[in-house]
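Quick one, tokens below:
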């Protein structure tokens, strides 16, 4: 397979990428009750504490859920991955190396300071300079600088053409208050833990009290123009911490909580759907579950071994038994069917074939012992809080043993798991990403050297060149062709083993209504507009 070297870019083509949109529509009310601001408290269950209060470095789901209620994004997202307005009302490209955002003029920080283009430009420039760990910084490879050219317009300068960066920065990057973060120094080191006088918010809620291991209390910000009426309905939002999802479900059934933030285990969906007092919301999945093989391990550096492992997993059994049929195959491709423009059905799922796995191991130079086991062992890490991955990791271990490959499971508490992931402390990483919305950006982060989520530690010159070419291409058809070629390399070389994309179901009390669903577990019905729009059915 050969990559094309031509770079198809131009000012006219880049300008054609310009996007504009109207302000977000008010959420539709789906039931009776009070949709006016009142004194109710919305209680939401989570299974993890906050690790980082600084949204520029957060990595836990609880980090994201809570800081998202204080620090707005420029853009939101639709079920098909396309971007929608939030803080930004218009966005696009002036030319091939200049992007722009036109932001709302009616947003204010909770301490009375105006949220303006200076905050946006400061946030982007500080993240580029300080390099805080996380997805936001990972989006900035081709970003040079941002400038507030007026109170409501930010223009960004790129080091080279990048037809994805405006939307991806807009969606993934929170905006933080310059007057709070700049005096604190590096955005990579600022804890933003409230110890210097509390937090400042331009979202619907402000964090006011933290009881580690127990709860996070947030109070309403009276002026939040992204919802109908301009004021969040619930007076308080409380995130309560539970040890696992089963305890969360018991708390929902007893009325201790009103919403479970994380997706339900598939085995619980139908039972809860038929439980009085509980409603189930279906949420589009824009992510995938996968296994990644660390090529810093000399055994896993051999493509035959990675292929042997890929063919030693029973994907259909995992989807049928663990996911209860609530998941779809991606064809072992990082280009999921939900991204219909990019999806390539000619890339087929790795066949479950333990005899083929054994043959591949022999091709790699290994000889099985009298018990039929090869002289290798791989340590697979996963989060104990992720009940679905915990179950299918066991199935992978068992089916791999049939192929003569020993896998040692190491489940840990989620934050330990994240730390191990960041340190490359694993042979096989098992986990999932909530949102993989833009193929070019996803490949940049996942497969380029130094990519923030390059857990395979791949550095393939042919793949690198394709990703860079796709980043510069502004013609959609051209970009799709390049990305399909790149996906074929990922599949053939097993740089990533995509297991499935999950259909998500969220549970909440029938005493509440008005939630606004967004795709992925990160957003679902706990996104800022949804939380601010939810109202008690009877008050």
């Amino acid at each position: 397979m050969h990559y094309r070297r031509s770079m198809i870019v131009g000012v006219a083509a880049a300008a054609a990428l310009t996007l504009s949109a109207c302000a977000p529509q008010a959420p539709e009310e789906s039931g009776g009750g009070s949709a006016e601001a009142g004194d109710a408290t919305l209680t939401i269950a989570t299974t993890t504490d906050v690790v980082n209060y600084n949204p520029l470095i957060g990595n836990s789901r609880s980090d994201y859920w809570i800081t998202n209620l204080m620090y707005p994004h420029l853009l939101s997202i639709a079920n098909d991955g396309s971007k929608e307005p939030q803080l930004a009302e218009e966005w696009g490209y002036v030319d091939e190396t200049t992007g722009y955002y036109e932001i709302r003029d009616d947003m204010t920080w909770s301490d009375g300071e105006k949220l303006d283009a200076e905050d946006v430009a400061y946030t982007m420039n500080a993240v580029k300079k300080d390099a805080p760990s996380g997805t936001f910084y990972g989006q900035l490879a081709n970003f040079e600088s941002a400038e507030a050219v007026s109170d409501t317009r930010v223009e960004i300068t790129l080091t080279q053409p990048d037809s994805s960066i405006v939307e991806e920065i807009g969606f993934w990057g929170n905006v933080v208050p310059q007057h709070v973060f700049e005096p604190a120094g590096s955005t990579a080191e600022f804890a933003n833990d409230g110890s210097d006088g509390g937090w400042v918010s331009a979202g619907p809620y402000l964090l006011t009290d933290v009881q580690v291991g127990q709860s996070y209390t947030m109070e309403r910000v009276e002026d939040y123009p992204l919802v109908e009426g301009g004021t969040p309905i619930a007076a308080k939002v409380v995130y309560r911490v539970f040890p696992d999802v089963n305890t969360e479900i018991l708390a929902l059934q007893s009325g201790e909580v009103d919403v479970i933030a994380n997706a339900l285990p598939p085995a619980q969906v139908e039972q809860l759907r038929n439980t009085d007092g509980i409603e189930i919301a279906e949420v589009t999945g824009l992510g995938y579950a996968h296994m990644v093989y660390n090529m810093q391990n000399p055994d896993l550096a051999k493509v035959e071994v990675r292929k042997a492992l890929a063919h030693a997993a029973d994907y259909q059994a995992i989807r049928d038994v663990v996911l209860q049929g609530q998941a779809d195959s991606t064809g072992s491709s990082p280009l999921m069917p939900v991204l219909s423009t990019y999806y390539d059905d000619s890339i087929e799922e790795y066949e479950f074939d333990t005899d083929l796995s054994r043959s591949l191991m022999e091709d790699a130079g290994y000889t099985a012992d009298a018990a039929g086991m090869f002289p290798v062992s791989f340590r697979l890490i996963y989060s104990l809080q992720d009940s679905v991955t915990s179950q299918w990791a066991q199935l992978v271990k068992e089916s791999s043993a049939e192929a003569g490959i020993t896998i040692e499971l190491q489940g840990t508490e989620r934050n330990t798991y994240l730390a191990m992931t960041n340190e490359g402390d694993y042979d096989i990483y098992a986990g999932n990403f909530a949102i993989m919305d833009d193929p070019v950006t996803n490949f940049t982060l996942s497969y380029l050297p130094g990519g923030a989520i390059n857990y395979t530690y791949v550095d393939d010159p042919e793949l690198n060149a394709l990703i860079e070419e796709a980043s510069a291409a502004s013609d959609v058809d051209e970009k799709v062709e390049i990305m399909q070629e790149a996906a074929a390399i990922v599949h053939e070389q097993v740089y990533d083993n995509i297991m499935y994309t999950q259909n998500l179901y969220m549970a909440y009390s029938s005493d509440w209504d008005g939630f606004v669903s967004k795709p992925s577990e990160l957003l679902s019905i706990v996104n800022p507009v949804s939380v601010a729009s939810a109202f008690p059915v009877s008050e």
